[in-house]
């Protein structure tokens, strides 16, 4: 099968663990003729900047699927009230540092300086909300929104289907995206849960893994 697009995570996939850009990934993604979509848990302005730096076409999934942009911006803010209530509840138990509150519209981002597992236990009182730890930030988000739902929507906006995409990622918040895509790839440094759902696990880590996967797909005629 020849895939029609690629969707790729940012932190830990096309960047190193210190969040610096891995140019092996940039070179590989720029070599593709098919559209490349940036997918991140970060806010829209970050996603746009990452897209420009990588040299892709400006089609992005931000806030773990809560915000998508393909010619126009769509944001699902319908679950934000419940996320705010969960955040207020957790503030009674932890000192929390909120990330980008002025820009984040569909979920809540937190610095990773508290006991995430205890927070998950406490949030069982909020069945519609989950905590996702990407290794770079902690997200309080609706269970109904994820990078998979974001991929499905961005595919519709592009006139494609989710199975037309190769998806590449490393963290638990990439799992739904990999599962819904036509072919899911985990880079070598990926979380064990991500490797379990991926159809390919690269030997290379970070950008080297992205370059390895792109090279394999192009060699087999599965990507242009």
What does it look like?
This protein is an alpha/beta fold and 224 residues long. The protein folds into 2 domains: 5-75 and 145-219, 3-Layer(aba) Sandwich (Rossmann fold), CATH 3.40.50.1000; 80-142, Hypothetical Protein Ta0175, Chain: A, domain 2, CATH 3.90.1070. The chain is 33% helix and 20% strand. The protein has helices at 23-30, 44-54, 80-90, 116-122, 147-157, 175-180, 192-197, 206-219, and strands at residues 5-9, 36-39, 60-62, 67-69, 73-75, 98-99, 108-110, 129-133, 138-142, 165-169, 183-186, 200-201. It has an 8-stranded mixed sheet, sandwiched between helices. Strands 6-7-9-8 form a 4-stranded antiparallel sheet. α1 (23-30) packs parallel to α8 (206-219). The longest helix has 14 residues, at 206-219. It starts with a strand and ends in a 5-residue tail after the last helix. The relative contact order is 0.19.
Notable characteristics:
Hypothetical Protein Ta0175, Chain: A, domain 2; globular; alpha/beta; 33% helix; 224 residues; Rossmann fold; 2 domains; 8-stranded mixed beta sheet
SSE topology:
Layout: E1 5-9, H1 23-30, E2 36-39, H2 44-54, E3 60-62, E4 67-69, E5 73-75, H3 80-90, E6 98-99, E7 108-110, H4 116-122, E8 129-133, E9 138-142, H5 147-157, E10 165-169, H6 175-180, E11 183-186, H7 192-197, E12 200-201, H8 206-219
Parallel strand pairs: 1-2, 1-10, 2-3, 10-11, 11-12
Antiparallel strand pairs: 3-4, 4-5, 6-7, 7-9, 8-9
Overall pLDDT: 96
Number of strands: 12
Please provide the ordered H/E string of secondary-structure elements: EHEHEEEHEEHEEHEHEHEH
Tell me the β content: 15-25%
- Structural class per helix/strand content? alpha/beta
Q: How many domain regions?
A: 2
- Helical percent range? 25-40%
What order do the strands of the largest sheet run in, or round the barrel if closed?
5-4-3-2-1-10-11-12
The radius of gyration computed from the alpha-carbon positions, rounded to a whole number of angstroms, is 17 Å
CATH evolutionary superfamily of the largest domain: HAD superfamily/HAD-like
Number of helices: 8
Level-1 CATH class name of the largest domain = Alpha Beta
- The N- and C-terminal alpha carbons lie at a distance of 12 Å
Q: Do you know the CATH topology of the largest domain?
A: Rossmann fold
Q: How does CATH name the architecture of the largest domain?
A: 3-Layer(aba) Sandwich
């Amino acid at each position: 099968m020849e895939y029609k697009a690629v969707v790729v995570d940012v932190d830990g996939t096309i960047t190193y663990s210190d969040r610096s850009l891995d140019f092996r990934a940039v070179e590989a993604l720029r070599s593709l003729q098919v559209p490349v979509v940036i997918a991140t848990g970060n806010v829209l302005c970050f996603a746009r900047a990452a897209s420009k730096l990588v040299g892709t076409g400006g089609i992005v999934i931000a806030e773990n699927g809560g915000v998508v942009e393909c010619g126009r911006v769509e944001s699902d803010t319908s679950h934000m009230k419940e996320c705010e209530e969960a955040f207020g509840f957790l503030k009674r138990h932890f000192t929390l540092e909120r990330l980008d509150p002025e820009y984040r519209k569909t979920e809540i981002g937190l610095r990773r300086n508290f006991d995430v597992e205890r927070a998950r236990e406490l949030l069982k009182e909020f069945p519609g909300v989950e905590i996702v730890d990407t290794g770079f930030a902690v997200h309080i988000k609706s269970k109904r929104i994820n990078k998979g739902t974001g991929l499905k929507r961005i595919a519709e906006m592009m006139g494609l289907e989710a199975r037309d995409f190769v998806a590449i990622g490393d963290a638990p918040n990439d799992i739904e995206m990999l599962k819904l895509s036509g072919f899911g790839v985990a880079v070598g440094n990926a979380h064990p849960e991500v490797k379990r759902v991926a159809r390919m696990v690269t030997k290379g880590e970070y950008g080297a893994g992205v370059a390895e996967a792109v090279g394999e797909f192009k060699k087999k005629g599965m990507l242009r």
